Amino acid sequence: MTTSRPGDEQPREQPRRRAPAGAAVLREDVTEAIRSAVFEELAAVGYARMSIEGIARRAGVGKTAVYRRWRSKLHLVLDLVSAIAVQGLPMPDSGSLEGDLRLLYEVTSRALRHPVASQVIPDLQAEAARNPEIAEAMQKALREGQHGVANGIVRAAVARGEVRDGVDEDLALDLVSGPLYWRSVVVRAELPKGYLGSLASATAAALRAL
Hints:
Elements: H1 28-49, H2 52-59, H3 63-67, H4 73-87, H5 97-113, H6 115-128, H7 132-144, H8 146-160, H9 169-186, H10 195-209
């Protein structure tokens, strides 16, 4: 029976492969196992108590496998937040402002209801208040993720004539992104049936009135 050693690039229940000759190659499946473990560890213990040892144990690899990719848990979390920003959200294309908003809210609501995300996001926000690097990464994730899609929705509405040209984009983005985030992340209240449709309709009306 083969057992993994501390430096092995070996996630749990994965067959061992022969390592290539020469310089070490960072296996993508191991990298993804570590990233998944970070989410789970953040949800379980929070950023302050999270450790490289705990992440490695959860991923089924040695600490060396983690340190080959990231210098510290801070750099690991910053990379993870940046990766989320790059993935972004799908750009709705329903043909109407209200339809686009409804699609955006449906996707965002599902993401915010995920049990891991619902614990990780508030914890990282609290840490961002103490750590400028995490704060910057979180802001970048919001700009390139949610705000990037919301901005596209508003500009498409302007092009269709549903929203006036020259609208205050910052105010428009606050109207699009603020209410659902407040209800789901800050208040953490259940969304009643029909809420997302009503929110999309109200937000569209507010944007047209700007």
